[in-house]
Amino acid sequence: MSRRALDNPIVLAVLGLLLEQSSHPYQMLSELRKRSDNHAAAITRGTLYNTVAALTEAGWVAAQGQQRSGNRPERTVYALTQAGRDELVRRLDAQIRTPEREFSQFLGAVTYLGALGPEGAVDALTERAGRLWQRTAADDQRLADALATGVSRLHVIEAEYALSLARAEMAWIDAVIDDIRTGSLTWPGPAAPSSGAGREEGNA
Question: For residue 61, what are the β-bridge partners?
């Protein structure tokens, strides 16, 4: 059994899906991609099948039977075992209790915000804030629609959390933009060109 496969972040997502209902890998893949943009970008069919194989070997999931839909080939349906349920609870408990420093592409880019110069930084941050606002408005509406249909808040709590993070990021961006414009956030030395294309490195 590959320990690395069991350390994959999608293990928790797969175990969570199987807690809801038994399903075959193709169904899992479709559901994960539908629920999360991050999963849509990160999960491939091969990765999911390898993860399910590792979970089966670990005894956390078990084949429950075959399922056929129309003329499609039979697919193996997997169910969560008691050991898998215990592992899901253990991982959930640990991850909720312990905050981790999670690296994001935005955090990496902000580290070098100074390279854009004041005008370039304001321009880039303003555009990001605008895109975040549009995405957040759409996500907020989807959440409201789901709750209006009677979906339990607990079943969409992750969407509520994601919206809170997005709003906090927009507030921080607005504050940084204001600090740049008022001069409380200053740039040491000559500012870099504001245009993203064809920048030349300044002299040391």
Answer: 80
Give how far Cα 64 sits from Cα of 11, 57, 59, Å: 19, 14, 13
Given a contact cutoff of 8 angstroms between Cβ atoms, the answer to whether 35 and 96 are in contact is no
Q: Which has more confidence, 56 or 201?
A: 56
Nearest to 5 by CA among 14, 150, 113: 14
136: DSSP letter: H
pLDDT at 179 over 80: yes
HEC assignment per residue over 110-132: HCCHHHHHHHHHHHHHHHHHHHH
* DSSP string across 70-112: TTSPPEEEEEE-HHHHHHHHHHHHHHHHS------HHHHHHTT
**End-to-end Cα separation, the chain, in angstroms:** 52
Q: Which of 132, 190, 195, 192 is nearest to 164 (CA)?
A: 132
Q: What are phi and psi of 193, to 5 degrees?
A: -55, 145
Distance CA 71, CA 75 (A): 12
pTM: 0.74
- What number is the average pLDDT over the span 163-183? 97
CB neighbourhood size of 95 (10 A): 12
The pLDDT, as a whole number, for residue 163 is 95
Question: Residue 58 is which amino acid?
Answer: A
